[in-house]
Every structure is written in structure tokens, then in C-alpha cells.
Amino acid sequence: MAEMLRIDNVTQAYGGLTVLHGISFTVAVGEKVGLIGPNGAGKTTALNVISGLLPSVSGRVCLAGQDITKLPVHRRIALGMGRSFQITSLFPELSILHNVLLALLGVQKSSYHMLRSITSFKPVNAAAKELLDSIDLWQARDCLPSEISYGQQRRLELTLALASRPKVLLLDEPSAGLSTEESAGLGKMLRLPTYENVAILLVAHDMDLVFGVADRILVLYYGTIFAEGTAEQIQRNDKVREIYFGSEAYRA
Ligand SMILES: Nc1ncnc2c1ncn2[C@@H]1O[C@H](COP(=O)(O)OP(=O)(O)O)[C@@H](O)[C@H]1O
Ligand SMILES: [Mg+2]
Question: What is the tally of structural domains in the chain?
């Protein structure tokens, strides 16, 4: 499989505290990789270095063979890096349909006044309908985000993250705040053909979600890759069970 994302010997520190100790891994085209590990292991920091929110102290990040280590966030997005944040990215005062149209057109909310004329543009409307149909939200298109369930909001956000056709999607705890059922729905969604060609790096402490979605799992522990394998291998790994499943942080 061709390589889409390469993290090469990346080190990151906050002040004097080193939180990533030269981590290296790759994600292939369309591959789903889960990144798990106890609280404070460095998972979010790793995603921030990859998306460009944080410059790494040393090491390299490559996207589709191109060294992007020094590129700012917007250049990485332009090259195909998508990200779904833990905080909601929906505009609360706009209808669901208008949120979708904004995402599809890749326009800023400031140019929203232009949208009224654009909504009559057939191809965009057809794409919006297809997208909303795929997550059963077409009927709710005139509702505000607050009028649909939290689980539906997360599914909508995830779908909108695809609107810019990213090659890589970085997900940090996408199931945070969801019920078990909603989280399962999200997991199913990530296995749909729509996501087939999108390389996904999934950070989550919801084990069912990670084991259900990821082709391969990396375990981060104190800023180093502690173990790597399939869901089955990780579940059977005694050392992982000790640091992860035995950890108080995950008994809750
Ligand atoms: N902005 C920051 N300033 C200082 N320390 C931070 C900052 N963000 C995270 N840390 C520390 O870095 C370590 C890794 O954090 P993080 O990447 O958020 O871990 P995870 O996402 O795996 O829970 C933790 O010890 C955390 O306290
Ligand atoms: Mg985190």
C-alpha cells in the first residue's frame, strides 16, 4: 500500500517537558490507524504536530511523499489534510442545510450573504442532498444544529470534514460525549465506502470504536510508541493490558 502520512522521529516539548520522544509511524492510503494510550500520553500533541498547530522540536512530517514539516496549517489543509476537532465546528445560528452548503463551497461564514444566490445553484444543492441523505438528515435540513441530537451533530461534522475531499483525516476523540449507541453508529460510518480512500488517524479512548474501525493500532505511552498491532494483537498483549486496561484512568 502506498504511504500517505509519515511521522519520522518527531519530538515535542512544552517548556522543559518532553512529551513526544522521537515517535515514528506511517499511515497508508486509505488505511485506518488507531492511536490509543492513557491520558497524558501525548496523543493530542501528536495530532497537533501533524496538523501543524504545533511546530515539532525535531523530526519530519510527510504527506503523500512531500515534506510538510515547515508548512502552516492552511497549506497542509490545501494539500489534503482534514481534521475534526473535539469542539463543535457547526455554525449554531445557521440551518443544517446552510452549514452543509458552506462546507461544500469551502467558503467563510463572512461571505455567507453570497449563499442566498448560490443555494439556487443545482449541482451544489444536489451534493448537499446526497450528503444529508447519507446520514438521514435531509428531512431535518431546515433545523438548527441544536435541534438535532448530539450524536447527529457529530455525524454531520464528520461528514462535513469530508466535504473538502481530504486524503487524511485526523480525529481526536470523535465520540466524546456520545452514548454507546451513537458511538457505534459513528464507528459504522467510518467503515462506509465514503471513507474507503481516506487515511484516518483515530485518537479515542473508546476501545469499541478503535477496535471496530482501525486496521492497525499504535499504543502511545509516555510519548513513545509502546506497541503496535491489529486489534486482536493489542487486546492479547499483556504489557498493553497492564498499562492500559489496568490503568485507573480507564476504569471509569
Ligand atoms: N499546552 C500545554 N502546555 C504544557 N503542557 C502540556 C500542554 N498540552 C499538553 N501538555 C502536557 O503534555 C502531555 C501530553 O498531553 P496530551 O498530548 O494532551 O495527551 P493525551 O492527548 O494523550 O491525553 C501531558 O503531560 C500534558 O499535561
Ligand atoms: Mg488528548
Answer: 2
Residue nearest to atom 11 of ligand 1 (CA): 40
pTM: 0.86
Same-domain pairing of 173 and 250: yes
C-alpha 35 – ligand 2 centre gap (Å) = 10
Tell me whether residue 86 is in a domain.
Answer: no
**Distances in Å between the alpha carbon of 54 and those of 17, 47, 72, 198?**
15, 9, 9, 23
Residues of the domain holding 27: 1-80+166-252
232 has pLDDT over 60: yes
Which residues, judged by CB distance below 6 Å to any ligand atom, belong to the binding site of ligand 1? 14, 19, 37, 39-45
Residue 46 confidence (pLDDT) above 80 = yes
Q: Are residues 24 and 135 in the same domain?
A: no
**Which atom of ligand 1 lies closest to the CA of 48?**
17
